[in-house]
Amino acid sequence: MNPNVNADPAELAKFSDLAHRWWDPDSEFRPLHQINPLRLGWIDGLAGLAGKNVLDIGCGGGILADSMARKGARVTGIDLSVKALKVAQLHALEAGTSDVSYQEISAEAMALEHPGEFDVVTCMEMLEHVPDPGSIVRSCSTLVKPGGWVFFSTLNRNAKAFLFAVLGAEYVLQLLPRGTHEYAKFIRPSELAGHCRVAGLDLLQTRGMEYNPLTGRYWLSDDTSVNYLFATRKP
C-alpha cells in the first residue's frame, strides 16, 4: 500500500477477512444491519435523499450505500478493501440495485478528482479506523457541494465508551469480533467538531445512539457518550 494513503493496513486486513459475511444479518455485521434503518431515516429526514448525488466513504460491503440508493439517490460507495467492494458489487447485482456503484479509492484521492460534486457525503463508523480522521473530514468538505450535507458517525473516547463499545460489545455480549475497535482511536465530539470547523463545515445536529442488551433494541437519543452522529452542512 502507498504509505501516503490515510489507512491502516491492519484495519483493512481485519475487515477484508470478514468481507464474505457483510450481508449475513446474523454475522459479525449484525449491529450494522440493525442500526442501518436508524441512520438511513435520520440522513433522509435531513437531506432528502431522493434524486441526490451521494458519496458513501468507507462503504464496506455497501449496507448503507445500497439502502440510500433504494431511497432514490444516485450513490457512489468508496473503500480501500477490495474484498468488501466485490461483495458490495455482487449484492447490488443480485438485489437489482441500479443506482449504486463502487470504487476502490481513498477519500483524499476522490476529493482531488471530484471536488464539489456531491449533494450528500456520508462517512459512518469509519473515522475511528484511520490514522488521520481530520484529513477525511477535510476531504468530505471538498467533495460536497456548497449547501450540501456531510454526515459522520463514530465513537466517543471516555471510560463509558470503553466499557460499552469495547469490553461490553466485543468481550461480554460478543456483538462484534474482539479487536474490532482500538480505544485510542476513538474521537471525542469536541475533537470532531474541531475538525469540522477547520474544514469549513457547520455542525447542525448531533445525535447519540443507544442500545439495550436485554431487548436488543437500538435507538437515537441526545446521549452522545458512546456512539454519536454529526449532521454538518457546507455553507
From TrEMBL:
Belongs to the methyltransferase superfamily. UbiG/COQ3 family. Pathway: Cofactor biosynthesis; ubiquinone biosynthesis. Signal peptide: none annotated. NCBIfam families: UbiG (TIGR01983). It comes from Hydrogenophaga laconesensis. GO terms for biological process: methylation. Its EC number is 2.1.1.222, 2.1.1.64. O-methyltransferase that catalyzes the 2 O-methylation steps in the ubiquinone biosynthetic pathway. Keywords: Methyltransferase, S-adenosyl-L-methionine, Transferase, Ubiquinone biosynthesis. InterPro entries: SAM-dependent_MTases_sf (IPR029063), UbiG_MeTrfase (IPR010233). This is Ubiquinone biosynthesis O-methyltransferase. GO terms for molecular function: 2-polyprenyl-6-hydroxyphenol methylase activity; 3-demethylubiquinol 3-O-methyltransferase activity. The keyword Transmembrane does not apply. It catalyses: a 3-(all-trans-polyprenyl)benzene-1,2-diol + S-adenosyl-L-methionine = a 2-methoxy-6-(all-trans-polyprenyl)phenol + S-adenosyl-L-homocysteine + H(+); a 3-demethylubiquinol + S-adenosyl-L-methionine = a ubiquinol + S-adenosyl-L-homocysteine + H(+). S-adenosyl-L-methionine binds at residues 39, 58, 79, 124.
